[in-house]
Amino acid sequence: MIVLEWLFLTIAPCDAAEPWQLGSQDAATPIMQGITDLHHDVFFFVILILVFVSWILGRALWHFHYKKNPIPQRIVHGTTIEILRTIFPSIIPMFIAIPSFALLYSMDEVVVDPAITIKAIGHQWYRTYEYSDYNSSDEQSLTFDSYTIPEDDLELGQSRLLEVDNRVVLPAKSHIRFIVTSADVPHSWAVPSLGVKCDAVPGRLNQTSISVQREGVYYGQCSEICGTNHAFMPIVVEAVPRKDYGSRVSNQLIPQTGEA
Amino acid sequence: MAAVETSNVASLSEQYLLKDHEEKSPMTAKPVEETEVKTPSAAPAEEVISKTEETPVVESIKIAPAPEESSEAVTESAEASPPVEASSEESSESTEDETSGDQESAVETPEIKLETAPADFRFPTTNQTRHCFTRYVEYHRCTAAKGEGAPECDKFAKYYRSLCPGEWVDRWNEQRENGTFPGPL
Asked: Where is the composition biased (Low complexity) (chain B) (predicted)?
């Protein structure tokens, strides 16, 4: 029963954290796919080393047991084994480092022509999002605040402390530039499924590029201790098809300017 | 805002609509309206604002040709009736315009072209603070050189609006008015 419950629970949220989750969330961007792959690559070596070291350790304990073999062998050094145990541990980090750096620099890659720019501004303790690509003056802009939904107002199926009132809507399958900053104390804009974790520092604009490969709703949380309500300022990103994004933005712009 | 939102239990799809945003809109939209009404009296600074709205240089949005005609329509309607009524008229007009394909204001086109400030290789790093600032300065240097509302400056306006947080732009505008702006204008 409990197992079934777990299974049911683990199926419910798509791109949010799951109960008893061990691995990373399903990747929605090439970057996140790269992170997951790197993790698996590195884990191959980790397991290899773990098995080898445990084998050596177990073997030593077994063969040099004080009852079985009270006088250990009097070998104090051997050139061959010393060369081997120096060379191999220095080669293994290279195998880890090469894909790691490749990924690191690809994450830093500047996208030449992003399709949209979204500004995520952290506040104590909510987020403000600005879509200003469609502005024609300094006054008007598509700006909204995103607050967490209190526990009492949650509807069935919504995740506790993960749902917000206004989601970030962005087009799938296009390059998006996120400008992350803060208005008061350092915050962080992090969405695991998108492979994004960008600190929001007051007075500084951090840029991060993402390209969401599939439509969906992605959940993230603040990842920089920012005060008492640090746990209550989640991030919800909703990736929609491009045409839906366009109609949605224009729908939100019309009531603003239409009444002007 | 959140308190208002959450007090009445809204379904998820309703929350998607960003209702509070729509409710908020008249307040944010008001200054724009005033500038549009004042255009015939032709104060130079205000003309800039209206021009940036009307000219087809607003690259993100597809705009139908004949901006002059449409601007006339705006001013006429604004003159004909008090501002509040004018707004309703305009909105009805805009729906008509959409059917005829002749948009009076660029932002009201339903078709949104996805376009934003391109990557600038003076700023290839994560830190884009200077990028935003430089674009803002470039815009104001451009208007200083080419005259207010010069169409070649509009792309810089678009860039800095895309990159800078609104709060920063407001503060800088204020500083420029007071003559305390720290940049090389």
From this structure: 64-86
- B103-138 per-position pLDDT tens digit: 344 444 455 677 788 888 888 888 999 999 999 999
Q: Which domains does chain A have, with CATH numbers?
A: 30-108 (1.10.287.90), 116-258 (2.60.40.420)
Q: Which residues of chain B are within 8 Å of residue A117 when distances are taken between CB atoms?
A: 116-117, 162-163
Report the distance separating Cα A18 and Cα A12, nearest Å: 8
At A168, is the pLDDT very low, low, confident or very high (cuts 50, 70, 90)? very high
Per DSSP, the three-state class of A187 is strand
Contact A235, A168 (CB under 8 A): yes
Evaluate the CA torsion angle A141, A146, A147, A151 in order and state its sign: positive
Average pLDDT over chain B reads 60
> How far is residue A243 from each of residues A213, B27, B112, measured CA to CA in Å?
15, 29, 9
Percent of chain A surpassing pLDDT 70: 91
Walk me through the domains of chain B, giving residue ranges and CATH numbers: 29-108 (no CATH), 129-178 (1.10.10.140)
Neighbour count for residue A21 (Cβ, 10 Å): 11
In angstroms, what separates the C-alpha of B146 from chain A's closest C-alpha? 19
Question: Assign residue B42 a region: left if phi > 0, alpha if psi is -120 to 50, beta otherwise?
Answer: left
Structure confidence at residue A5 (pLDDT):
55
Residue B5: what are its φ and ψ, rounded to 5°? -60, -45
Residues in chain A: 260
Cβ pair A257:B117 closer than 8 A: no
pTM (whole model) above 0.80: no
Minimal-distance CA residue of chain A relative to B131: A205
3-class secondary structure, B111: coil
Tens-place pLDDT, residues B59-72: 444 434 444 444 44
- Which helix or strand (DSSP H or E) is residue A216 part of? strand A216-220
Tokens, residue B6: 């959450």
Instruction: Give per-residue pLDDT as tens, A12-49.
Output: 456 788 788 888 888 899 999 999 999 999 999 999 99
